[in-house]
Amino acid sequence: MARLICFLLLTSCLWAYPALAQPVGSIQGHIRAGGQPASFAPVALLSAKDSSVMKGVLSDEQGAFGLSVLGPGTYRLQITYLGYQPYYSSVLTFPAESGRIQLDSITLLAATQSLQAVTVTTQRSMVVQQADRTVLNVEGSVITKGNKVKDLLQYVPRVRLASDGSINVGNKTNVLVLVDGRTLEANALAAFLQNYSAEDILSIEVIPNPSAQYDAAYGAVLRITTRKSREEGLNGRGMLKYSQGAYGRTEPDVSLNYSRGRWHAYTSFSPYLHSGYYAQERLERFFPDGSLANQSATLNTYNALFTNSSLDYTFNARHVAGLRVNTRWDGLDLYDIQTRTTFANRTGPLDSLLNTHNVDHELRTIYDLNLNYSGHFDTTGKALLLNLTQTFYRRQSQQDITYQYTALSERPLGSPTDIRITNPNDQRGLIAQGDYSTPLGKKWGKLDVGAKYVHLLNNNQLEQATRTGSQYVVDSTFGSQGRYRERTLAAYVNLSKSLPGGWSIQTGLRLENTRQELATAGLQRTYGGLFPSLNLSRSWSRNRSYSFTYSRKIIRPALYNLIPYRYLTDRYTYSEGNPLLRPQYASTLEATYVPGKVSLFANYTWNKDQITQGIQTDPLTNVYTVTNINLERVDEYSFGLTVPLNPTRYWQTNTTLMGLGNATHTDLFELSNFGSRGFYASLFSSNIVTLPKGYRLELTLSYKTPSRWAYWQMRAIYWASLSLNKALLANHSGNLRLSLYDVFRTQTYRISTQYGLINYTNQNYNDNQRIEVAFSFAFGRQSVKAARSGSLGNETEKNRMSGR
To answer: What is 344-362 written as a DSSP string?
Structure first.
């Protein structure tokens, strides 16, 4: 309760913030364009001395704006708006007599009229609502100054950054994130969002219900495009980050761009230097004749190197070919797990203990080799994209487990048991993909067609041996050897067209066919189907729009879960593969309404053969067996709104409130006709507070009510994080950031389940409370053209190619 009170007090304190900053004055005004208020127009405060941008805001829906001035001096205002000439005010001097300057109504001139002030290139509108997506154009915008990429996400409706670094779009967690058309490893993506300068971003696009053009496995797509300039030369960016929780983590990062003549090159190095990850877990199981409780601590020590490199050759302005190489190399990935298990009889008193020590050594290497071609055949939009990608995934794992039964006095009961588990795994993926776009004229719109071929191989070996004397003897009841092969053919057609009255329509159809073969289990299976998509939307003046979409998706199981292995986690917990695991199909209806700033949305999804984790128990041995299973039917729905506000001149906030519900109907192991219903709500708020002398305070708040999904229940969880950053060096080329995550140490996850003979609770804390300092800087000519990047076409397959 004390933590919750502190959490609420911290939120309340923001309302008292205006007393903190000491501005020397403010500027207020109203903007009109074409006889109507200029909604969401970028307004920049420029230094009259050198025209550098000091601060920036967006006008509200009625065209009104307000700017605080934090230092004495002379200033000018700059206003840009799509289709209109840039506006420059006369010189404004502070401190002013009244401390506040109220400008007369500002009327922007159409771009076709002559401009009597300084002429510059007109910027695009900041927020554009298209038929199937929302686009945030930020190139050169004042809102990028001193920000990181994650700060820009607050301006995109329904998008938020989760605590684990993943991005959610509404209630969808299966989001494909493309940075310049390419995917990043989860750790690399989190580092990119946290540390990459917003000033190097052109635009962010969110597609809440993607068309048939994208793989049917994704419920939403987020496309981030970085800056590409036009001069030759070399530039780069460096970053060094260190954080301390129970253990430290060091994460440097360096990227380089080089352009000369027809050649364009890019490379980045992101090492993790001897970093530590600490977790605590408590698990309880209840049986008719007693109970079992585990208290475990895990220390994961690792170092790794991520690289992304590309080399492009431009034949002419319309045709480019390229080579890309992405790698991941783990020099050390060591898990040291200490577990203490207590046993109690039916009446409650403890009767014995089990101490388990599990040391897991893992080595992992991943390589992506990609050849690509991009051709634009005329100025009307005809284009051809080709990709050929080979992915190699290799993993070596060895576990040494020792467990010892003891009396309550810690006196050993018998001899310790030593177990060794080895698990080499080799996976390969070959992906060939082609996409073609062509306009069909005003009558038919635009046509996109494409095809994709995927060939996956998984060679997995699992062997468990028990030590007898000085030798390890293989236990044939555990382990397996599996050779898995999968081939997928896919093709799509997509048609989009603008209609009169602000209407637009997009419709598509994707065909996928998958063939699975598992030689050791004698499994052969073919599945697939048709995956249609439809989007109908309308946009009109003052940034108002609504849309209706439908799509059908498929979620395939991870390759490792299809191998018939049996794996010992501890003496009373096994995990098993399930070669009969079926793919999951999801049909989604979605509606959105944007009446200006606020974004309203509703979603319904019907899932067939939902993939989730299930637990069985043996009443004779009290052993739990964990495996992935299919739930016959799960219905999910969500609704909510996203509200951006400016309560004061110094405080910007973006809040998303959602309600989510679900209903499950399935046979569950020995239970027939299992059913459950659940509903919960979530609140996520990001806040940016402008402080004196160029400092910025960021506060993130999250709260989720108690929830239920199928047979899992989770208790309420809430957390808060703070950060303070400051631009440094000449031209603000450096940035120093100090952050405190999970301020009150409340980010503890508590889940439980009870069905049939299963009665289980779990509490987990993952070293979330951390203090972090990060320094980033840019060097070289910042106008250097970045290397062209494109999708490798293997995004879905890489997500499925992973170890346990």
So the answer is: EETTS-EEEEEEEEEEEEE
